[in-house]
Specification:
The complex is a heterodimer.
Chain A (H helix, E strand, L loop, with lengths): L1 H27 L4 H25 L5 H21 L5
Chain B lengths: L1 H8 L14 H24 L4 E2 L2 E4 H14 L6 E2 L1 H17 L13 H7 L6 E8 L4 H10 L1 H7 L6 E11 L2 E12 L14 E2 L22 E4 L3 E2 H30 L8 H17 L4 E2 L1
Helix pairs in contact in B: 3-6, 4-5, 8-9
Classes of the chains: A mainly alpha, B alpha+beta.
Chain lengths: 88, 295
């Protein structure tokens, strides 16, 4: 149980760092839409990969879960593009 | 209706103990809905910018008044609009759009801010340049310049007596934007306080200019501005819709997280905490993102 708790903690720290760094970089390049797209895309791909690794580590990875991570990431990507539709 | 909303947001046996909003099929519909909305907004914005578009209010007068306001607050004399500097700023803006760059110096090395000023006929003793793009109002531009140390130094330099602006809309590096160029200068400098030289400020090496009397030709300056007032502000509209959707999804994930933790229900789904983290950080990103940049 201890090992499982530690794995979860490490995973959530890694995810938090990834998201904070990725979105901070995107915010820093607020005047460069291409840089923002690059940072947000990379962050979202990293988010999906981390999610999949996390579930794989815990032996409960199903295609349904991969699709869920993909859809949540797509939802964020769609919202970002919608917000910046006038800049594209 | 009540049952529908309950199924949509609250986990219970009728939605397989997972809010319907969080089912993959609903998330997929939501993604498609946002993409369609983006397409619809983009189409309306392109065809009817008077109905749906970004509301801009950038005027030369507002920037000048606010610049002089901060100068006066710091005990400095106000800047005077100069037609030659305005011309230099306009040519600089056109050059950036034409050569597709966002910098003080053209990447190919062909132009410098000082070249535009010299070519306009303004014989400067000191000169400086501030740039801004992607802002929607004059206040945000002046505030952004004041927050940046080098731009602030230009704004609050006692060496400068004249100023000229260009406010030009166009496509820069693949992005539709409004570019603001602010050129500072002085021809007869009477020092009022000790200052350090900024990176955006140049003193010519030609000492003959020192103390040289210059006859400035006063050209009537046309009021310049970029104001668009569509019926619906696109920026406000997209921001509001996005935040509503994201808060609904976030709320559903939080309720689901609390529910599963309390009831100890095991399901084949992703970690709610992952999604909650992502959505919260993205919402913070939306709230802090201003869109404009200075250089």
């Amino acid at each position: 149980m201890k090992k499982m708790g530690f794995t979860h903690k490490t995973y959530y720290i890694a995810e938090s760092v990834l998201l904070l760094v990725g979105f901070s970089a995107a915010a820093y390049f607020s005047s460069q839409i291409k840089m923002q797209i690059a940072f947000i895309s990379t962050t979202l791909v990293g988010y999906i990969v981390l999610g999949v690794i996390h579930h794989k580590t815990h032996h409960n990875l199903k295609i349904k879960i991969v699709v869920e991570y993909l859809l949540v990431a797509l939802l964020v990507a769609a919202a970002f593009l919608f917000l910046n539709s006038s800049r594209l | 209706m009540k049952d529908f909303l309950l199924q949509l947001f609250i986990p219970h046996q009728h939605n397989n103990f997972r809010a319907k909003l969080l089912h993959n099929s609903t998330l997929f519909i939501l993604v498609i809905f946002i993409f369609l909305l983006s397409f619809l907004f983009h189409t309306i914005e392109t065809r009817h910018p008077d109905i749906l578009g970004i509301s801009y209010s950038i005027t030369e007068n507002e920037i000048l008044v606010k610049t002089n306001q901060v100068r006066q607050e710091n005990g400095l004399s106000p800047l005077t609009l100069n037609a030659q500097l305005e011309h230099a700023a306009e040519v600089k803006a056109s050059d950036m759009f034409y050569k597709n760059y966002w910098a003080h110096f053209a990447p190919d090395g062909s132009t410098t801010p000082w070249l535009f000023i010299k070519n306009s006929g303004y014989e400067y003793l000191y000169a400086g340049e501030n740039l801004a793009k992607g802002f929607t109002n004059s206040s945000d531009i002046v505030n952004a310049w004041m927050k940046s140390p080098t731009h602030r130094e230009n704004m609050l330099s006692s060496r400068f007596k004249d100023v000229g602006f260009a406010i030009v809309e166009g496509k820069l590096q693949g992005e539709d934007t409004v570019l603001v160029v602010e050129m500072f200068g002085s021809q007869n400098f009477i020092p009022t306080q000790t200052e350090s030289k900024t990176t955006n400020e140049e003193k010519p090496t030609n000492n003959n200019l020192l103390g040289q009397s210059q006859q400035v030709v006063k050209i009537p300056v046309q009021p310049k501005s970029y104001i668009t007032e569509p019926k619906i502000d696109l920026a406000l509209g997209t921001r509001t819709i996005s935040l509503i959707i994201l808060f609904l999804v976030l709320g559903a994930f939080v309720v689901d997280f609390i529910f599963t933790e309390k009831k100890r229900i095991t399901r084949i789904v992703g970690h709610n905490l992952d999604h909650i983290l992502l959505v919260i950080i993205f919402i913070i990103f939306i709230l802090i993102q201003k869109g404009g940049g200075v250089l």
